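Quick one - first record:
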Amino acid sequence: MANPVEDIRQIAPKATSLATQSLALNLGPQHPATHGTLRFKMELDGETIRSCTPEIGFLHTGFEKLGEYRNYNQFVVITDRANYLSPLNNNIGFAIACEELFGVTVPPRGQYVRVVLAELSRIADHVVSVGLQAMDLGAFSVMLWAFIEREKMYDVFEATTGARLTTSWTRVGGIFRDVPADFADLVRGVTSKLPPVIEEIEFMLSKNKIFKDRTVGVGTLTREQAISYGMTGPCMRACGVAYDVRKSRPYLCYPELNFEIPVRTEGDVFARYLVRLEEMRQSLSIIEQALQKMPEGPVCSVDHKVALPPKDLVYQDMESLIHHFKIVMPGHGITPPRGEVYSCTESPNGELGFYLVSDGTGLPYRVRIRPPSFYNHQAFPAQVEGRMLSDAVAILSSMNVIAGELDR
């Protein structure tokens, strides 16, 4: 009868010569941590990521091509769907690009209203981003707090635009209607209660040992790397680059408002979280200043050969009805000058750019979107290679990549 002990002794020395091989693993496109249809092809050595290759295109909707078959105001509806966490910022960014192409100036009140809604939308995006980042690392309560605050902001969006998510709010030359009479009270009813919530989130996470162990020193990028990848927004400012379109290329009434650009130098997941917290505080300050300085007057350009006239006048005034008819009817519409323009604004994820080419007809010849998520996303492999698989979840959540904006 064979001796089990001797058999083990014979096998044991041979175990050191066993061949090993890496494991191919798909992270996504169906995975809770990707928050959308993102796919990464990874090669693992145990739990260490040896290589990572992003594969995009799972949510490709052809937004840019659709722009060639819609007039300038109709494309506003499509911008809602690109980044569905901050559609108002997309609406405003595209409208500004059109106005630069046409040479149209938005009245002061329209500019201030746009700024208030853009900053409120920035807070809504950031607070959910931070909440989901906490949820991915196990702090589920923070996510619930974040969604509660966003719902309150959605109430303001609904009262102002008529919709909670796909707002389709701007028009070339301004906005489609003035804000409600109690707009300032509605906004302050939300913003006045946000500082304690931000402090509570900071109290829950910033000194939490588990959260810090998962974020500090994880996914670090240098200043040079961030610049070379073309990163913008909180991801870039967390690497020590003080680039913000609102300061570098001022638009609307931002030059008349005082605010700081939050910057960190660590370049890791924890730094991106801290930048977003401080940006929410800065946005609250911008909103209050804009509400105090907001002038009276029209919210849309009075050049009704470009800007749609107010709806109530369309029903009462023959000239307004003719302008409305000429702008919206196929074969008529806005006739912009031939040319091209690149315009950008500071969206919650970074520089959101629109490149428009006009051939003088009512439809754009070419629409090109520069989405911040596309550039931030390409830096993901550099952050995860050589790290543990669990770190990929923390790094991805800190980048806040939106699939609709990424794929377009």
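second record:
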Amino acid sequence: MARPDKAAAVAELTDKFRSSNAAVLTEYRGLTVAQLKTLRRSLGENAQYAVVKNTLTKIAANEAGITLDDQLFAGPTAVAFVTGDPVESAKGLRDFAKDNPNLVIKGGVLDGKALSADEIKKLADLESREVLLSKLAGALKGKQSQAASVFQALPSKLVRTVDALRAKQAEQGGAE
């Protein structure tokens, strides 16, 4: 029978997996407490970084309906549970790992889909959600402006054509 403290820890981790948009598993071996504190700050307000027990985390992930590779649970593990923009947190992890090579990104989960370490690095290379939305809005606005110009040109061209026909008729009528 499971001990109550372990059952509570599994329940808490399961809730975190279910309520998070993403979770990134890392190895933190060799990092100091001060470095871990800096890492937690660099992840932003929408992420929690927690040192976890591998067995309990694996059980919690399974209970949350997430299948993770057993290789992710080798060595000491910490998980960044992301409730906001996963790109921001992935960038924080990537940038921190550049300065501190002891932090190793093992893999993770995004919206229930397992991600490799390389996929998390690609996620970190994306621009933030706000930037992507503003680019989309700009592109849509540009297309609307082009469409408005085309629609405005059609009546204008029609008026010029009618005026030219009247002028031609007036010339031919005036010549007779």
